[in-house]
Amino acid sequence: METVLALLSGVLTACAVWLMLSGNLLRFLFGLLLLSNGVNLAIFAAGRLTEGAPPLLGSGGTLPGHEMANSLPQALLLTAIVIGFGLFAFALGLTIRAYRAFGHLNVDRMRLAEPEDDK
Amino acid sequence: MSWTLALPILVPFCAAAAAFLLRNRRGSGWISVLGAVASVVLAIRLLLAVVENGVIATQMSAWDAPFGITLAADYLSAAMVLITAIISLGVSVWAMAEVGQISTRMGWHGLFQTLIGGVTGAFLTGDLFNLYVWFEVLLISSFGLLVIGGQRKAVDGAVKYVTLNLISTVLFLCAAGLTYGATGTLNMADLHAAVAAHPDQGLMTVIAMMFMFGFGLKAAVFPLFFWLPASYHTPHYAVSAVFAGLLTKVGVYALMRVFTLIFVGDQGYTHEILLWVACLTMLSGVLGAAAQSDFRKILSFHIVSQIGYMVLGLALMTPLALMGGVFYLLHHIIVKANLFLIAGVSRRLTGSSDLYAIGGLYRSAPLLGVLFLIPAFSLAGFPPLSGFWAKYVLVKASLDLGAWLVAFVALLTGLLTIFSMTKIWAEAFWKPHPDGRQPALSTIPPRQRLLLLSPVIALALMTVVIGLFPQPFVDFATVAAEQLLDPSAYIATVLPAGEAP
Amino acid sequence: MNSLILTTGARLLIALFLVFSLYVLLRGHNAPGGGFIGGLIAACGLAIHAFASGVAEARRALRVDPRTIGVLGLVCALISGLMALPLGAAPFAGIWAEVAGYAISSVLLFDIGVYLAVVGGILTLIFALEETL
User: Fold this and answer.
1) Is C89 an interface residue toward A (CB < 8 Å)?
2) Taking CB atoms and an 8 Å limit, are B163 and A91 in contact across chains?
3) What is the domain count for chain A?
4) Does the CB of C20 have a partner CB in chain A at under 8 Å?
5) Whole domain around residue C124: which residue ranges?
6) Summary count for chain A: helices (H), strands (E)
7) Does residue A8 lie in a domain region?
8) How far is CA B214 from the centre of its chain?
9) Which residues of A fall within a CB distance of 8 Å from B217?
């Protein structure tokens, strides 16, 4: 199972890099989304995987009798997903604003802050 | 003790909430100023507690370390918190005159205090994942500040700032997750031993490099600095000032913390890379500045080159070098924020920040000229200002190690900095205004003039005081460097003996 | 969007969503649930209203600026953290009291803060995106 997750994380990262290298801002954002999902999967796998056994303590604080995954990475990852969601939403809003301001999303042509004749 | 550490973080958030809820009332900016005053008082209290005890630490909600979230302050953290509070006070006063009604209604002051809270949290936390969360807090509020009230240019700058910083965030998160997977802890003090004891040191070095990349992008070191000169000259001047003073320094602070406390096992590799990065950062920043002709763009490139000096202090890892790095960090925040504030005043007087379109400031506003010269000379390293001592210590530290090339690069960068500062001086101050304008300070209404100039004067005075009486500050930085090099006191405070798992 | 089915359905759904979100919020202390997921459910309900009858109508129904709701959530969380100060406990330590046989705590206040912050934050985003598109 770990192997599958590791491969999946790698594939996501590879796709992300390919998307991020494109000159289009929206594609870049989708790449970033894939990249953060790849990272989330990696963290998830770092907490070990157990099937059909939730990592929860029994009532009264007793340890469960079965092998247990570490639940902290899952908590970290939940936080990271929430934060990532907020950041992505902001970036999407910014992209819309950029599209309205420039009429295109080609980052190579966004030279307003650094004009070409600067050199 | 625990509240001494927690209140400097909580107060800016209280101020942020109050300033936001009252954003439609007149004078809501004063809440931000009030919050900043409280921050300064609390930061001084924190500093006194640290000076008394060496290192102080506490656990949020009283969960024991390494399971709960730790807040810890040593000399470096406490000093950074105080400087953050001072900059917050200066910029919030300055912003009263500069940030317009529209931006205020959109919640500018609330976002500003949130940013300060995030920065303070990043300096005080003793937990890697918590550090990530504080990075996000300051990142989100900085995104907001960057686009509020800006024009199309600000959107362009924000696109580059946002995208590149998001990449650094993802890398930081990945590194933190892998660290936990490998060692089973995220508490920085606990990690010191856990990383050293890990059987696979190669893996630890890989993780260390991921941290270096993530923090390096935030700190704007070579070759990861391109977002900085692309965005820092686009927003409000008050925003530029606080970004220039504080944001990249959070990255430098994180590098200093992580590479003195956690990843010290493979210094021949990691710190060697840092050394090269430092030299190239200094050079590329200062050469970039030489090619620019805009007040704020020149200053932005100089942030990059100055970051090189601080990383240099970390890379050499001797007591003297680290002391120089810490001293540089503290001096630089004051000087850089001040220069951006002065750029704002000059823009207000002359109507532009393009050096070829302005001029005549020395004749009509001599006070501003003097106020500019103090931080500008300090930045370039003229004795007896604060920058001289910072540069002197770093050059001496590299000569002590026989690193002639490094010392040469540091001196050359100082020389080229003088060139840039002279350029600003000659164009903006000395030559007459091309349109024949007389940009006198008296054209600004008296109340606004007071608000604009008092923070500038106060920060300039601090630069002069540090320069004339460097001994107490040097002593302080020496203790800070000793604590960084020998983290046993830090670890013992966070994890009391016998309770360590 | 102007669809009779959606507008009529939304009226029923929004009440259901809001009540269910409160249920999830309150059961979150000892069982799966809590402020974050509750806030998401409430925000979904209001978002459906915004899709069905337009953002202007949703803003009117909400009465308060969503950003203000979010900041009020922050205020709740800050109060729950600062409550420990006069009692001499560690920052953000849980404070418990018993009122008429029910145990109430600062933990619940924090969860309510999270709920409000999530509702406010998500609605701010959705309304802003809906209005610009």
Assistant:
1) no
2) yes
3) 1
4) no
5) 4-132
6) 3, 0
7) yes
8) 16
9) none
